[in-house]
């Protein structure tokens, strides 16, 4: 939908406006309008090094998938006007912001700042494309610097403390009309870009999921005689990741991309259970027990089209 069509539709809706209807005396219905609040967070670790961990789709390409589809695909989904959508790239390790001289203003696009639909339309016409390019290029610069100078990223602490009132926007407000009241809420989505190995922060305890811990899990499982890794996992809580105590998680949908299996070879798995099988089991249990509203985890993608399909299916657009 072009901004001209959006303007025309907005005028029609305003012309048929909520307050132009006569009050029928019947009880008004409440209509829920859900806006998108999407955050992409990358661990920006040495997994970005293609020589060490080759993969077909880079973090920057995943950020581009979001940026280039903000309008009209996401912004226009089931709504014609008054969109409050928010998009941002966040940093799991905040020290990377200063180390890489990141301009965080370029990594946020916020439609909730507009009070009038005409202002949104003017922005889409005059400024949005430039902001979209800056959104994508600013992250690309950060990614390139991270490849040369990677930092460790403490994912556990980020999920506990870094997931704040911006990433989970629980604000609700009511727009009253003659026939309907419109309740505006947010669909809070966090896309975590990581290889799945939690190897920064507190190690060798229950705040990590290191390669060492995964190897120990597999070795003990194979020696146990258990046929199923879930059965073994339930018997051995020492492999669990410490549960988070962040109440905001109950209204957060988490998509974890792209888990990297170090046991994978050019001809297939080198051993079973694979690192990927173990990671998916422990990550899922960790975030579900921590109260995350919704969770999906995926391994590295074969191509960008596959990444787009997964992301937009998760978003529901």
| Radius of gyration over C-alpha positions, nearest whole angstrom | 22 Å
Subunit organisation of the chains: single chain
Number of helices: 11
- E-strand count: 9
Helix and strand pattern: HEHHEHEHHHEEHHEEEHEH
Number of domain units: 1
End-to-end distance, in Å? 14 Å
The share of residues in extended strands comes to 15-25%
Most strands sheet: 7 strands, mixed
Average pLDDT reading: 90
Which term fits the overall shape? globular
In percent, how helical is the residue content?
25-40%
Helix vs. strand class: alpha/beta
- Low-confidence stretches are 1-23
Offer a quick outline of the entry:
It contains 11 helices and 9 strands. By secondary structure, it is an alpha/beta fold.
Structure explained in plain terms:
The chain is an alpha/beta fold and 317 residues long. The protein has helices at residues 3-15, 59-68, 70-74, 95-99, 117-126, 128-148, 155-162, 211-224, 229-235, 275-289, 304-315; strands at 29-42, 86-91, 108-110, 173-176, 180-193, 253-259, 264-265, 268-269, 294-299. Mean pLDDT is 90; it is low at 1-23. It has one domain (3-315).
